[in-house]
Each structure stands twice: as C-alpha cells, then as structure tokens.
Amino acid sequence: MCSGTDSDECADNVNLCESGNCLNVPGGYRCECDMGFIPTPDGKACEDIDECTFADICVNGRCQNIPGLFRCQCSIGYELDRSGGNCTDINECADPTTCISGLCVNTPGSYICNCPQDFELNPTRVGCVDTRSGDCYLDVRMRGDASESLVCSNEIGVAVSKASCCCSLGQAWGTPCESCPPLNSSEYKTLCPGGEGFRPNPITVILEG
C-alpha cells in the first residue's frame, strides 16, 4: 500500500492568494480573501469586488472602484455621509453667510434665495440688496394736511441707496421721500444687517462702514 505526502503549496509559493490568506488542503490549497475581495471560481486566487456595480452605492455622486474598496466623488451640493458610501445634501441655508437679507430655502444639491420686496440678488447670488437709488434727507416731518404725505429737507446725499442713507445718518430717502425704518425694527435689520453705521455692498453684500 502506497501512501503519499501532501505538498504544502502555501509554503512552497508565498505569492499565492494575493489579497488573502493561503490555506493548505489535502491535495491542493484554497484562498480566504481579504475584505473587498472574493475567491475566483476555482478558489485559487482572490479578485476585487467591484462595489460600484451594487445598487444604492454613491447615490448623488460618482463611484470609483479601487482595489478592495470604492470611493465616492459627490456631486456639487452634496457631501459624504458618515458611512462614506453615499452622498447627502448639504444644507447651504445653515450657513449664515448664505442668502444674506433674504429667505433661504434648501433644495436637493442647491438652494433658493428669496429676496424681500424691492430687493434683488446680488451678482454673486449670495444675498439680497436694495439697488434702488434716491436722495437722502436728514429731516422729515408730516405735511400736516389731508394727504398725510411727508416733507423731507436738509438733503445730505444724492442718488444713494436706501441702505447707504438709512443705515447711517439719514432719516428719510427716495422720491417721493419715505421715512427710514425705525432702528431695530425687522425692516431695519433687513436693510441694515450690520446695524447702525454699516451697509451691505450692492455687489458683494460685504458690510461696509
């Protein structure tokens, strides 16, 4: 009766089962593969799993397969979630520098900035500004007749924005003139988000003194 000795292929060839562990078995060997890899049909090697072929991988982004893993490259307006496997919407409205002086509405991958009456988006679309121009007055009083209109005098500025006037020394602005909003009122805070003495630049919305 003849008995043979099993050859340990794993010891004879240390290059077997790359990306896995080689296990000697009677008459041969098999591979136990690392995470992200699966054995080939004959069990003699490990091959990469292409996770990008799976459903619900890198939603709202682009999947890039790499050996043993995958990488998500998120679309604009999205960021990786904690799992690293999907992209979630960035809430731009949580940033106080987004949609200054307007109402920010978050949307998938973006946001909408709704400006109040008489305001419009600035060129960089980060905030709302009142771009109208008019004269600025230091003194204002009621006309005292049935018209209830205002009489404005002591002109201190010509063709200036309402913010430039009312956020500084002006008491009335425009043609026909209208009273500047009361200090600390909601209208005043919208027009003068930096408070008294500061006005938003009509191009950048950056506060200027």
Alpha carbon gap, first and last residue: 103 Å
Mean pLDDT: 88
Q: Which CATH C-level class of the largest domain is it?
A: Alpha Beta
Output the CATH homologous superfamily of the largest domain. TGF-beta binding (TB) domain
> Strand-and-helix sequence, N→C?
HEEEEEEEEEEEEEEHEEHEE
CATH topology category name of the largest domain: Extracellular Matrix Fibrillin
Radius of gyration: 35 Å
Shape-level CATH architecture of the largest domain? Alpha-Beta Complex
- Number of DSSP helical runs: 3
Overall SS class: mainly beta
Descriptive notes:
There is one protein chain. By secondary structure, the protein is mainly beta. The chain folds into 3 domains: 14-48, Ribbon (Laminin); 51-89, Ribbon (Laminin), CATH 2.10.25.10; 92-208, TGF-beta binding (TB) domain (Extracellular Matrix Fibrillin, Alpha-Beta Complex). It has helices at residues 9-12, 162-166, 186-191; strands spanning 20-25, 28-33, 37-39, 46-48, 61-66, 69-74, 78-80, 87-89, 103-107, 110-114, 120-121, 128-129, 133-142, 150-161, 172-173, 178-179, 199-200, 207-208. The chain has a 4-stranded antiparallel sheet. Strand 15 and strand 16 form a beta hairpin. The chain is rod-shaped, with a radius of gyration of 35 Å.
Give a topology summary.
Layout: H1 9-12, E1 20-25, E2 28-33, E3 37-39, E4 46-48, E5 61-66, E6 69-74, E7 78-80, E8 87-89, E9 103-107, E10 110-114, E11 120-121, E12 128-129, E13 133-142, E14 150-161, H2 162-166, E15 172-173, E16 178-179, H3 186-191, E17 199-200, E18 207-208
Antiparallel strand pairs: 1-2, 3-4, 5-6, 7-8, 9-10, 11-12, 13-14, 13-15, 15-16, 17-18
